[in-house]
Amino acid sequence: MRNITLTLLIIFCLLSCKREQKKSGVFSLKYVKNNNELILIFENNTSQNIVFPVPNTLEFGDKNFKDFSTQGNMEGSYPISVYAIMKDNQSSKFYQKKLDSIRNSNLTERGMADLINQMMPSDGDSVFYLNRNGKLRVKYNLIIKQSPPTHNYSSKFKQNYYPYNKVLKGDYPEGEYLRRFSKIDFGKAKFIAQPIINDSLFLNISQNDVNK
User: Fold this and answer.
1) Residue 128, C-beta contacts closer than 8 angstroms, at least 6 positions apart
2) pTM (2 decimals)?
3) Radius of gyration (Cα) for the chain, nearest Å?
């Protein structure tokens, strides 16, 4: 009996150690919803301080449609549009200036300098600095709109996090400024493009949840 108990204890300890090893060395993200506020909690369990981009707008896809987002130029095509906009003054001011400067230079090179003055706070990305073994909370306002004609509608909406890794590795002109930013000298910090998402965020939303 003692041998069985000891064996089970050893197995339990080994499994616990493996779980802890998986958690260590990881830059992760989890979501918290609080009424019409979304909070993204980033956790840096790596051995280095990190710098990383975060989208100023979080996109949500409706399970009844195949599109990545229900927000943007086609907003009126969906019964309900869901997205979230980052609250002001949360990013790293030092690195944000660097990213904005690189983005503006890239737009000018592409003959799109007119867009610089048309940028809205919800456009583009914010940059954050997070110490090793640290946590950071980034807050968003959740926006839920219903397109006319209004009628009863409900669906499940999934938050589709911006695919920074794909954009940085692919041939996307709009991602060039991010590629350039990722290669600057961050001193003792390391650039990381994408967190590991612990659990995807799904929201069950109906016409009753539309922002008043």
Assistant:
1) 42, 51, 52, 53, 54, 90, 91, 92, 95, 136, 138
2) 0.84
3) 21
Q: Tell me the per-residue pLDDT of 129-141, one tens digit each, with 9 for 90 and over.
A: 999 999 999 999 9
Cβ neighbors of 44 (< 8 A, separation 6 or more) are 27, 50, 130, 131, 132, 133, 134, 135, 136
Question: How many residues are there in the chain?
Answer: 212
Find all residues with CB under 8 Å of 76, minimum gap 6, and list them. Answer: 147
- Range in 21-25, 64-68, 152-156, 158-162 the model is least confident about: 21-25
What is the spatial distance between Cα 134 and Cα 78, in angstroms, rounded to a whole number? 39
Whole-number Å distance between alpha carbons of 103 and 40: 24
Q: Which two tokens stand for residue 199?
A: 């659990």
Angstrom distance (rounded) from CA 123 to CA 110: 18
User: For 142-194, what is each residue's pLDDT tens digit?
Assistant: 999 998 877 899 999 999 999 999 999 988 888 899 999 999 999 999 999 99
In order, the DSSP letters of 138-165 are EEEEEEEEEPSSP---EEEEEEE---HH
Q: Measured in whole angstroms, how far is the alpha carbon of residue 165 from the centre of its chain?
A: 12
